[in-house]
Predict the 3D structure of the following.
Amino acid sequence: MATPTHTSDDASPTVTLIDNQSQKRIELAILPSNEGPDVIDVRNLYRDMNYFTYDPGFTSTASCDSAITFIDGEKGILLHRGYSIEELASRSDFLEVAYLLIQGELPSKKQRQKFDAEIQLHTMVDEQLISFYNGFRRDAHPMAIMVGVVGALSAFYHDSLDIKDLAQCHLASMRLISKMPTIAAMAYKYTMGQPFVYPDNELTYSENFLRMMFSVPAQEYVPNPVLSRALDRIFILHADHEQNASTSTVRLAGSSQANPFACIAAGIASLWGPAHGGANEAVLNMLNEIGHKDNIHEFIARAKDKNDPFRLMGFGHRVYKNHDPRAQVLRESAHEVLTELGSTEQPLFELAMELERIALEDDYFIEKKLFPNVDFYSGIILKAMGFPTSMFTVLFAVARTAGWVSQWNEMINEPVHKIGRPRQRYIGYGLREYVPTEKR
Ligand code: SDX
């Protein structure tokens, strides 16, 4: 695989920027991408032209080089290290995808066995952490617990904090992927007032998580293969997604050389927002608020009303402007799970499909290219599987930890470490004198 260069050289094609006021001009190199748009290297713009670029929300800005995930928003394509999300969702499993994201290649049988053994080694958490949970109110949102507990891991695992020691970076990466299900299940059990369930390394990653979530000491727990397969597919579909808000948060935190646990805690905080990973919880709340398909048109009208802050949760995406390939896989998975379970959530699923049908026939959604995203169907499956709405984003965080860790490692292994430090377009006061209180 040809690796694009960081640096521009004389042979690079260029664009010329001419300042029509001063007639100053600059040649900006075009750096090639392997897939998707090439990039214009503006790193010398401020030095040579005394201008900043301006791109709130980074809609047209590449923040880094990455070889992990490629998204084509127009064609609805999502590749992880070159493999399509559709193939991985149907033929792989979550831990294999986690290995692929971190190492760049699908594991051999021996490599997979070694990886599984490493993950199994770290599924438990320091027993002292249990008292940490007791500091939360029972009605704490589980994402609040996740942010706190994951950030606190740096207070326990001192032998995996040094980001300049690649062995410690690897150890922290394994601990994070391995412990997230345990920490997440403990957050749920704590809010339920039920005893924590220790991991069982005889089970697969997803089976283990379901058991830690739903088993109780009073009765035997038998994993349901349909549910564990559906959950594993949900984890695969949420594993990584290029430079989204939470991944960019992890990278920015990591650029200051913060320890890996603090970086992932920052990513969890960012993912919590309803415009991002919190949307799956918001979709269920919205569907329950709509209640019946007769009310759909009222909510569609509200979503289109500029004076109404209401948005159709689970619709739209910064990058996908055709369809989110993950939503299509999840729609099929939702149908399988609800059919298998004969779930009471069937009416909610039918309401969601009717909402999707009506929205996709509406000019507003067609013109603005608003399609169901990954969060639109995931919540329905999770609710049918018995997860409370408040746990939906927690599951997103469990899965996305594989992506956050792979992106963080990619950044840590960059030959040149630069702290992320965006500039601004200053629109405030110029210098002015202090005014004493009596004269204000
Ligand atoms: C995730 O980035 C990632 O990769 C994220 C993610 C991942 O895997 O990491 O894919 C996960 O975050 C999925 C998105 C989950 N969020 C939601 O479902 C919340 C609802 N969606 C919107 O908030 C919105 O669509 C965003 C935030 C997802 C994307 O917003 P953009 O790209 O910044 O676009 P925008 O807010 O500027 O909207 C463009 C127009 C606006 O209208 P105009 O001002 O141009 O007239 O579309 C409208 C918006 O009002 N619009 C919507 C809408 N989303 C956008 N109108 C109604 N309902 C919506 N959902």
About this structure: DSSP finds 18 helices and six strands in the chain.
